[in-house]
Design goal:
The structure holds 2 protein chains of 2 kinds. By secondary structure, chain A is mainly β. Chain A is built from 1 helix and 11 strands; from the N terminus they run E-E-E-E-E-E-E-E-E-H-E-E. In chain A, strand 7 and strand 8 form a beta hairpin. The termini of chain A are far apart. The chains are: A mainly beta, B mainly beta.
Chain lengths: 115, 114
C-alpha cells in the first residue's frame, strides 16, 4: 500500500513569511496527526484530526499555526508569520482508528529552515 | 500527563556488540509502547511494539519487553551492525479509539563502528 505522502521535502523561508505543508495519509486511515520535530528532540504533537474534525490541538500555537483537513482526506498545515524557532521537521502520520493497537505510519517529513 | 524518558546518547558501539537502550514511561492508563527508528535523512519507521504488560515486541533482531512493574520498555539487540546506526525513539500511546496518539521520548542516537 502507498505510504503517507508529504510535500515539499525541504523549504527555506525568511522570518515573517508564510509557508504551507501538505499531507496525504494512507487510504482509509481516519486519523491524521501533525508533529513538529526540532533538531535533537523527539516529535511533539501539534494537532490530531479524526476524519475532518479536530480531536486535539492543545499544543498548536494558534496565533501563527493553522491546519485543516477538508473532506477528511489530505491535510494542510500553515505557518504565518514564521519565526526562527519554527525551524524543524514537520511530520505527518496517519492511523486507523485506534492507533495504539494498529500502529501509526509516518511520512518522510518536511524540513523547514527559517532564516 | 504522559511522558517517556530515554537514556541520553550518543551510544557508540563496535559491530557485534550487545545493545541496550533504556526507556521508562509515565502514563495514567495502560498504554501501548513502541520503538521507532529514524535513519539519516529519513522519516520515522516502526521498529516494534507491545500492547499489554509482559508482551515482547521483536523485529530485525531487536527486542523489548513491556514491564508494567518497572514502567519500562528497554530496547535490546544481541549483535549490532553498522547498518543499525540511527536514532531510536521510545513512545507510548495512551487513550482509546480516536483519542489515541503517540508521545515520544527525546531519542537516542546509536553509532556502530567497524
Amino acid at each position: 500500500e502507498a505510504g503517507v505522502a508529504q510535500s515539499p521535502r525541504y523549504k527555506i523561508i525568511e522570518k515573517r513569511q508564510s509557508v504551507a505543508f501538505w499531507c496525504n495519509p494512507i487510504s482509509g486511515h481516519a486519523t491524521l496527526y501533525w508533529y513538529q520535530q526540532i533538531l535533537g528532540q523527539g516529535p511533539k504533537l501539534l494537532i490530531q484530526f479524526q476524519n475532518n474534525g479536530v480531536v486535539d490541538d492543545s499544543q498548536l500555537p494558534k496565533d501563527r499555526f493553522s491546519a485543516e483537513r477538508l473532506k477528511g482526506v489530505d491535510s494542510t498545515l500553515k505557518i504565518q508569520p514564521a519565526k526562527l524557532e519554527d525551524s524543524a521537521v514537520y511530520l505527518c502520520a496517519s492511523s486507523e482508528s485506534g492507533g495504539r493497537n494498529y500502529g501509526y505510519t509516518f511520512g518522510s517529513g518536511t524540513r523547514l529552515t527559517v532564516v | 500527563g504522559d511522558s517517556v524518558t530515554q537514556m541520553e546518547g550518543p551510544v557508540t558501539l563496535s559491530e557485534e556488540a550487545f545493545l541496550t537502550i533504556n526507556c521508562t514511561y509515565t502514563a495514567t492508563g495502560y498504554p501501548s509502547l513502541f520503538w521507532y527508528v529514524q535513519y539519516p535523512g529519513e522519516g520515522l519507521q516502526l521498529l516494534l511494539k507491545a500492547t499489554k504488560a509482559d508482551d515482547k515486541g521483536s523485529n530485525k533482531g531487536f527486542e523489548a519487553t513491556y514491564r508494567k512493574e518497572t514502567t519500562s520498555f528497554h530496547l535490546e539487540k544481541g549483535s549490532v551492525q553498522v547498518s543499525d546506526s540511527a536514532v531510536y525513539f521510545c513512545a507510548l500511546s495512551d487513550g482509546t479509539g480516536t483519542a489515541s496518539k503517540l508521545t515520544f521520548g527525546t531519542g537516542t542516537r546509536l553509532q556502530v563502528t567497524l
